[in-house]
Write a structure and sequence with these properties.
The complex is a heterodimer of chains A (about 110) and B (about 110). By secondary structure, chain A is mainly beta. Helix content of chain A is about 0%, strand content about 60%. The radius of gyration of chain A is 13 Å and the shape is globular. Chain A starts with a strand and ends with a strand. With about 110 residues, chain B is mainly beta. Classes of the chains: A mainly beta (about 110), B mainly beta (about 110). At the A-B interface, strand 4 and strand 5 of A face strand 6, strand 10 and strand 11 of B.
């Protein structure tokens, strides 16, 4: 069964801390997405990656194909980073669909 | 700026009404999706379409139908709205089979009373 597991489910940190959110998946992935949703807001795609590492501002996403694991890092976290972060995988046999993780609710305290 | 536009941000409808949720994308994407998002349940796929006039059931299609007459527009129809369809509805589009350019609309919060 194609699955995506995220951890932690909830994360509270102080402003400035380095944040890591983890995502693990089953075999056969063709791409992995990291998305962000602010309270009451729509969902924004942050990264799509199938290998290596991508960086955008203070956000870094990595993927390890052998370990079937991806991480989203936030450096110098800020209260405006508070959101739900979701990973979602495109499996090769998923027929255009994303398989969604449950999301990580991140709160950054000033 | 490319985007997916959902016609309404908030909607309140009565039980039994027929409800139309509209979604338009300007990215020439082949694939379009309708999700609902509920607390504790995450995102669940209702229907998707990978081409004009094509549609596929997702995980929870019961009580819903869809229409895709033009490539840029994907409509979700609640044939007879019920209170258990109160939810946040999210439309998305993507290109090709790898999920490239996966883009969400800002969502429609539907309340059925």
């Amino acid at each position: 069964k194609n699955e995506v597991e995220q951890s932690p489910q909830n994360l509270t940190a102080q402003e400035g801390e380095f944040i890591t959110i983890n995502c693990s998946y089953s075999v056969g992935i063709s791409a992995l997405h990291w998305l962000q949703q602010h309270p009451g807001g729509g969902i924004v795609s942050l990264f799509m990656l199938s290998s290596g590492k991508k960086k955008h501002g203070r956000l870094i996403a990595t993927i390890n194909i052998q370990e079937k694991h991806s991480s989203l890092h936030i450096t110098a976290s800020h209260p405006r980073d508070s959101a739900v972060y979701i990973c979602a995988a495109y499996y090769q046999d998923s027929n255009y669909q994303l398989i969604w993780g449950a999301g990580t609710k991140l709160i950054i305290k000033p | 700026d490319v985007k997916v536009t959902q016609s309404s941000r908030y909607l309140v409808k009565r039980t039994g009404e027929k409800v139309f949720l509209e979604c338009v994308q300007d990215m020439d994407h082949e694939n379009m999706f309708w999700y609902r998002q509920d607390p504790g349940l995450g995102l669940r796929l209702i229907y998707f379409s990978y081409d004009v006039k094509m549609k596929e059931k997702g995980d929870i299609p019961e009580g819903y139908s869809v229409s895709r007459e033009k490539k840029e527009r994907f409509s979700l129809i609640l044939e007879s709205a019920s209170t258990n369809q109160t939810s946040m509805y999210l439309c998305a589009s993507s290109s090709g089979q790898g999920g490239h350019g996966y883009t969400f609309g800002s969502g429609t919060r539907l309340t059925v009373v």
